[in-house]
């Protein structure tokens, strides 16, 4: 029998999985933007070049103004927040089905404490945020040398 599917998953996976106790899952309550599929968003590719790294982050449907980048204690934090226009219902007619929600998401990457905001270059085009992060040489720690004691 064919079951309807959403996002390439069986709609009845959660209901028919008898090996797991059927208890409410409250871990997704803060994921209002894309529901339980929020973990699959903000897909990121990281490419290493000789002198820098390039990151491509998918943020479809967002505008540049809805995205923020922060650097805190060596972590690069990418956040995106989206609100739906309340007047959209009257402009486009009667709303029959609504699957888009307002909300926010964020992801962080450890980039090292040697990078500054000026080092990171960002460009947003066609729903893809492209970041360029230079490789910084970490100062080498001197090797321990043993001093021989005579006597």
**Any idea of the CATH topology of the domain at 41-88 and 96-135?**
Immunoglobulin-like
> Helical residue percent?
under 10%
Termini separation: 88 Å
Q: What is the total tally of β strands?
A: 9
Outline:
This protein is mainly beta and 151 residues long. The protein has two helices and nine strands. 6% of the residues lie in helices and 33% in strands.
Structural topology:
Elements lengths: L4 E2 L2 E2 L2 H4 L27 E5 L3 E7 L8 E6 L2 E8 L5 H5 L10 E8 L10 E5 L2 E7 L17
Provide a descriptive summary of the structure in words:
This protein is mainly beta and 151 residues long. 6% of the residues lie in helices and 33% in strands. The strands form three sheets. The chain has a four-stranded antiparallel beta sheet, with no helix packed on it. It has a three-stranded antiparallel beta sheet with strand order 5-6-7, with no helix packed on it. Strand 1 (5-6) and strand 2 (9-10) form a beta hairpin. The longest helix has 5 residues, at 88-92. The radius of gyration is 23 Å and the shape is elongated.
